[in-house]
Design brief:
The chain has about 300 residues and is α/β, with parallel strands linked by helices. It has a single domain, classed as TIM Barrel, CATH 3.20.20.30. The protein is about 40% helix and about 20% strand. Helix 1 packs parallel to helix 10, helix 3 crosses helix 5 and helix 6 packs across helix 7.
Length: about 300
């Protein structure tokens, strides 16, 4: 297992909050040293639509990276998404990162009249979407025909600030892990925190095998975990009494949680040794801003000295 060459990053995973609260927490995260704000893409829930919100937050912030966890390909035509992404990247002066997913939770798609397809079909659609997006950012004119998606003589102008936009793929299955290693700029573990180091090592091994097969250096592939963020004895007690502590709630079963900053720094060191370089955290709604600022002062400031 290789080490990562990427600098350590911290992200805040937004909850299903009001627009006013979302803006307040995002700005607090940016001021507190967080590197990334990650937005949910679940249109069936009582929340703000993910792409519209990304555009608003991009315009209201100055340095934090804007992304999703994950932006699900079946919801949007990838050619139009490529154009939307290029525009938002220009608006934010290069602060967009696309975290894409093949799509899970079938009822979400059926509710919007979207064909869900088999796992193999969704993975093929993800591959076609990545090819279309990168082609539209880098070539003019560009044509591509996949099983479901195609474009003909199109481009995404004005071009992204860096010529392209980093693509992170949310994955956990073996085939998708190897594909991610072969083509992606980063990987985010689907379904939350790993249940064991053995699980994590197996996933990273598949990622690196895919990179090796493609002739890539895997050390540059960003590796993201997302889970709960809790610091302080009182906050830990609140977390234990909250729905987020439900052992069946996979997205928040584990994370950067501890009675003190030292506890959390030790967790970071352990996962850093396993090649992880990015942590996205979802905080309890009660006291979120206080927790965000405390993380910035007691954890992020220490590891980024």
């Amino acid at each position: 297992m290789s080490a990562t060459n990427n600098p350590l990053r911290f992200g805040i995973a937004l909850g299903n909050w009001s627009y006013e609260r979302t803006v307040t927490i995002t700005k607090a995260a940016e001021e507190s040293g967080f590197d990334v704000v990650a937005i949910n893409d679940r249109p069936t829930e009582n929340n703000l639509e993910a792409w519209t919100l990304a555009s608003a937050l991009g315009a209201l912030t100055n340095k934090i990276t804007i992304t999703h966890r994950t932006l699900n390909v079946p919801f949007r035509n990838p050619g139009l998404t490529a154009k939307m992404a290029a525009t938002l990247d220009v608006v934010t002066e290069g602060r967009l990162e696309l975290t894409l997913g093949a799509g899970g939770q079938e009822p979400h798609y059926l509710a919007y009249g979207i064909d869900y397809g088999t796992g193999g079909e969704r993975l093929a659609d993800l591959r076609d979407a990545v090819a279309i997006m990168r082609g539209m950012w880098g070539q003019e004119p560009f044509s591509y025909e996949g099983a479901r998606y195609k474009v003909e003589n199109v481009s995404a102008k004005p071009s992204p600030v860096r010529g392209s936009i980093p693509i992170v793929i949310g994955a956990s299955g073996p085939m998708n892990m190897r594909y991610t290693g072969a083509v992606a700029d980063g990987w985010m573990k689907n379904r939350g925190w790993p249940l064991s180091m053995e699980e994590l090592r197996g996933l990273v091994s598949s990622l690196e095998a895919g990179a090796e097969e493609a002739g890539r250096d895997s050390s540059g592939i960003r590796r993201v975990l997302n889970g709960a963020g809790v610091i302080g004895t009182e906050a830990m007690a609140k977390h234990a009494a909250s729905p987020m502590a439900d052992p069946n709630a996979y997205l928040t079963r584990h994370g950067l949680m501890g009675d003190s900053a030292d506890d959390i720094l030790a967790i970071i060191d352990t996962f850093r040794d396993e090649g992880i370089d990015s942590f996205y955290m979802r905080f309890l709604e009660d006291g979120t801003e206080e927790q965000v600022r405390r993380f910035g002062e007691e954890v992020i400031a220490k590891v980024k000295r």
